[in-house]
Amino acid sequence: MARTQQLSAQVIGRVGALAVALGIGVAIAQHPGVAVADDTAAASTPASNPRTADRDADPQSRPKRHQARTQSDRADVPLRPRARLTRTAADDAPSRPATPDASPAVWALAGAARRELGIDAAGSTSPLGTEQQLEAEQVAAETVQTLPVKVMKRVLRKAWLRTAEREYDGGVDAENLARLDKAVDEYAMGAAFQQQLLDPMRPTVVAQVAPPHTWYGNEVPGSRILYDNPDTIYRFTAVNKTSTYVLSGRFTGDMPADTTFSVLTGLSGTTAAVLSARDLQIDDDGRFTITLSGDPAAPGERNHLQLTADSTLVAVRNTLSDWNSQPPMELSVDRVSGPRDSLFAQLGGFAIPVIGPTVSSSRLLTTLVSVIPPMKNPPRILRGTLTAVVMALGLSREATYIKVATTDPQTGERVTPNVLRDPSRNAEFLATQLQSAGYFDIADDQALVVTVDPGNAGYFTVPVTDLWTITGDYRNEQTSLNNAQARPNADGTYTLVISPTDPGVENWVSTGGLNRGTLSLRFQDLDPASPDSPTVRAVLVPLEKLPDVLPAGTPAFTAAERAAQLARRQTGYDVRFAPFPQ
């Protein structure tokens, strides 16, 4: 009890001091004699563990953008033991879903398919499994157990249910109602990750928007939200224009279908700038570095992103079309200059609308907020409170993204189910892609036949999501297909069959047992020199009439072939969380 009171007193004291410093700073900054500074005093901060003590330096001069970090620079970085995630109760931490049963003969063929691929996930190590990632997963798992998060989950559940009943024709069926609690749990887990990304002075690369997974002996809950793409590895790091950062990465194996680095602004995550891998300067061994700062790119400089006063995050999307040959890239971040870490930064002050950009644009205000140091070990209740604030955005965001599937963007009218429009740009998604969204209502004896002409897109995918806009068990069920996984038609188009029941064709996209759900087709790696835009056509048919609408000569797909197809899928998926299982 005494320890809790002491922590509370420290928090109150520091927040009070911060408020006083801000008040004085705002009053002075409003005086016309105070100029806006471009940068603040330098500091060097490597990608860090959020629980370690702050170790900021404050050199006199700002290093050049491409200045290499010496061995002595790294000598002060404290070594951290590998994090261990505290297991939660079985009903709170989802385990790895079971693989559907099949005959011994079928799985013998599947094993042969795995050997033919020559890929052994257990013999490799995923670049996603960094010490910072494991620590972030532990902190997030602890944070979602706090009272503020539990209260906000109840609020979200009621709000989402009301929204879905209003937006979907026919409301919410039993299968999707049974998934609501899990969807809210994953949104909370995602917010618990985002809470750790509020401090741009202690940047670290965190992978999230991921399914439940097991690695290093830990069961990690999912954090999927808002039409997550099974092909995409999502990683984020906090940034602010008062600092300079260097992202370092390396591509191994085949190049991903698409990789983008997006600068996001504010709490809403609006995209302000995008750098694509096709525009990157990459070394022969696959390595690259990207600088981020408030300065514009130098003449001829390609690997640079300019930050503005309201920049808060960099979202990195690594889209893998061939899961078996395109591993996730390596990625890390270093802050090479900027102000000292502070309580203001730790509490997400730079992400607060108006306040954050105002402080970022003023050298005086930035200096004042830097006077109050951060807490070395923030109380769990504080993390939970900040996470609940982030979760509150879900009250409106979920409604916005549901309307992407149910509403015509041109007319604002409700659209009927089983209709897909030609791809277009949507402000809610990646700025460099096109998407075609809709929702489906398919009986067990029906199929939605989707014909895609990829046009000038080097990549497209057709993933199934539920009414809460998240994917299901896409490791063990073929609930998505992209153009590298599907078989094309003779004319270069693709015909995919979406159904709860296996129709016996190769290009089956399972609904994962759902009769009702959402779709968000994505088109990326667009050729700007080609006017050939992608098109999408969908038709609902009874399964018995399926041969009438499929391309002539479409062969039957046997149970053994399906098992081999799933085995290849599982092997490719396991590379993400290798070694898997352990």
Automatic annotation (TrEMBL):
Limits of the DUF1214 domain: 476-523
Biased composition, class Low complexity, residue ranges: 39-48
Segments of skewed composition (Basic and acidic residues): 52-61
Signal peptide from the UniProt entry: none
Residue ranges, annotated region (Disordered): 39-104
Organism superkingdom: Bacteria
Name listed for the protein in its UniProt record: DUF1214 domain-containing protein
Species whose genome carries this gene: Mycolicibacterium chubuense (Mycobacterium chubuense)
